[in-house]
Amino acid sequence: VLTYNLTVTNQGPDNATGARVQDVPPATLGNVSWTCTDSLLSFCPAASGTGALNQIVNIANNDYLTFTVTATVLSTARNGSAIRNTATVTRQPGANEPVLTDNTSVDTDTVVGSTVDVSVTKTDNTTTVSPPELPCGRCTAMRHRFAPRTERVSG
After folding, report:
1. How many CB atoms lie within 10 A of CB 72?
2. Which of 24, 77, 90, 143 would bridge 20 by S-S if both were Cys, CB 3.0 to 4.6 A apart?
């Protein structure tokens, strides 16, 4: 399980109204859910959700919102591969934003551990079998006992 903490901050000087926060998980993550925590002056549009995070937010000047995204690493993630997750915030339409370089944050984790490919094969190295031999003293009686019966039907 991976947990990402996203802090979306408005450094002002104006309130950010209608900014979009997104965190679209890569294909190697599943069971994605998220929560949002209010701050002193800014409030979450929704307390929680499942799947990709895609919320329109209003953040007061010098305030923030905190999102926590939780996901499960799927079995398709191969040992040694990288899981790269990107979160973005986009200013509201028509807003002037002098610093765009802090609107994207990337986290990369390397998959290690328990990727397995197990299998089982069973064989006895033979294709035919014979019943066990009977002890000599009882052979005649046993053969007679298990001999096929033939019945005549007269009509």
Report:
1. 14
2. 90
| Cis check: omega of the bond before 13, within 30 degrees of 0 | yes
Using a 10 angstrom Cβ sphere, with 0-12 exposed, 13-18 middle and 19 or more buried, the burial of residue 8 is buried
User: pLDDT grade, residue 153 (50/70/90)?
Assistant: low
pLDDT digits (tens, 9 = 90+) for 65-115: 999 999 999 988 888 889 999 999 998 888 888 888 899 999 999 988 765
Please give the structure tokens belonging to residue 118: 């197990």
| Integer Cα distance of 90 and 118 in angstroms | 45
As a whole number of angstroms, the distance between CA 36 and CA 65 comes to 7
pLDDT band for position 64 (cuts 50, 70, 90): very high
The span from the first CA to the last CA of the chain, in angstroms, equals 81
Phi, psi of 26 (to 5 degrees): -70, 165
Residue 47: CB atoms within 10 A of its CB come to: 11
How many angstroms separate the CA atoms of 30 and 1, rounded? Answer: 10
